[in-house]
């Protein structure tokens, strides 16, 4: 964990929140510089062990620091196909996204959180930053491998709700937050399938439906690519198949 979350003003930000303070890092240290140095050391040690490393970072300053930590670690100890990644990347900036992509890093985002917080974020981070939160379009255009997940139990495990949120970017009020960061249904589906398998180093086993891979799939009662976007999250699941065996059948 590099930092916390914006709702509690514990995301580590470059600019202050509305009302002051910029958050701090969730690592030991008596000052921000000490904490930053400690975070860079943690990433270096984790990389040197040979593990695939994931770091929770939401604030733009935290994401930049994590990116710098990975860059330094890879410079000292190059490792091809490491697949390290940032978890959340909530306030990821375009220049940081491009740098992450150049280093072969990924980001795991949670689109379903956006509707829950979009209406109140402007009071915490201001209108401009709120509109750029969860920048899926920016991340994909930068060439970043983006994975989507639920962040359960922060949201429920309904992946269709996540797809809907990524496509619409609407708060609970129906107001759109950052329309330029919307992505298509097919792009959103890839976040939960192909890209997720890549992040897990299991692209040879899952992520797409083809001969030789795991027969893990669900059958929906409707075409998710053509249904009205506001209905995506509630498309019923008619059948679930795991390892080629039907484990749920709505009929």
Task: Describe the fold and architecture.
With about 250 residues, the chain is of the alpha/beta class. About 35% of the residues lie in helices and about 10% in strands. It has ten helices and seven strands. Strand 1 (about 55), helix 2 and strand 2 (about 85-90) form a beta-alpha-beta unit. Helix 1 packs across helix 2 and helix 8 packs antiparallel against helix 9 (about 185-190). The protein is globular, with a radius of gyration of 19 Å.
Descriptive tags:
4-stranded parallel sheet; 251 residues; 3-stranded antiparallel sheet; 12% strand; globular; 34% helix; 7 strands; alpha/beta
State the helical fraction: 25-40%
Shape verdict: globular
Spatial strand arrangement across the major sheet:
1-2-3-4
- Radius of gyration, rounded? 19 Å
Instruction: Count the E strands.
Output: 7
> Count of helical segments?
10
Helix vs. strand class: alpha/beta
The largest pleated sheet is described as: 4 strands, parallel
- The CA-CA distance between the termini, in Å, is 44 Å
Strand content: 5-15%
* Unreliable segments of 5+ consecutive residues: none
The whole-number mean of residue pLDDT values reads 97
Task: Explain briefly what this protein structure is.
This protein has 251 residues and is an alpha/beta fold. It contains ten helices and seven strands. The radius of gyration is 19 Å and the shape is globular.
Q: Topology of this structure?
A:
Layout: H1 32-48, E1 54-57, H2 60-76, E2 85-88, H3 94-102, E3 106-109, H4 114-117, H5 122-125, H6 127-131, H7 136-141, E4 146-148, H8 159-168, H9 185-192, H10 194-199, E5 217-220, E6 237-242, E7 245-249
Parallel strand pairs: 1-2, 2-3, 3-4
Antiparallel strand pairs: 5-6, 6-7
Helix pairs in contact: 1-2, 8-9
């Amino acid at each position: 964990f590099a930092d916390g979350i914006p709702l509690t003003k514990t995301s580590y930000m470059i600019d202050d929140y509305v009302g002051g303070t910029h958050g701090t890092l969730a690592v030991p240290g008596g000052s921000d510089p000490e904490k930053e140095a400690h975070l860079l050391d943690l990433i270096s040690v984790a990389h040197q062990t040979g593990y695939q490393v994931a770091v929770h970072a939401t604030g733009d300053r935290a994401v930049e620091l994590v990116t710098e930590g990975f860059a330094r670690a890879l410079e000292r100890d190059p490792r091809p196909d490491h697949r390290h990644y940032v978890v959340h990347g909530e306030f990821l900036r375009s220049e940081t996204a491009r740098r992450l992509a150049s280093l072969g890093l990924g980001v795991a985002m949670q689109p379903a959180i956006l509707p829950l917080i979009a209406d109140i974020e402007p009071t915490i981070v201001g209108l401009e930053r709120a509109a750029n939160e969860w920048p899926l379009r920016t991340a994909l255009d930068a060439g970043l491998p983006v994975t989507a997940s639920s962040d359960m139990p922060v949201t429920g495990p309904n992946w269709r709700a996540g797809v809907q949120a990524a496509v619409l970017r609407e708060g609970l009020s129906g107001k759109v937050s950052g329309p330029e960061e919307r992505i298509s249904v097919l792009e959103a589906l890839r976040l939960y399938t192909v890209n997720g398998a890549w992040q897990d180093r299991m692209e040879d086993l899952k992520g797409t439906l083809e001969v030789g891979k795991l027969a893990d799939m669900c059958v929906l009662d409707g075409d998710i690519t053509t249904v009205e976007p506001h209905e995506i999250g509630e498309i019923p699941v008619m059948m679930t198949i795991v390892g080629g065996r039907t484990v749920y059948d709505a009929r």
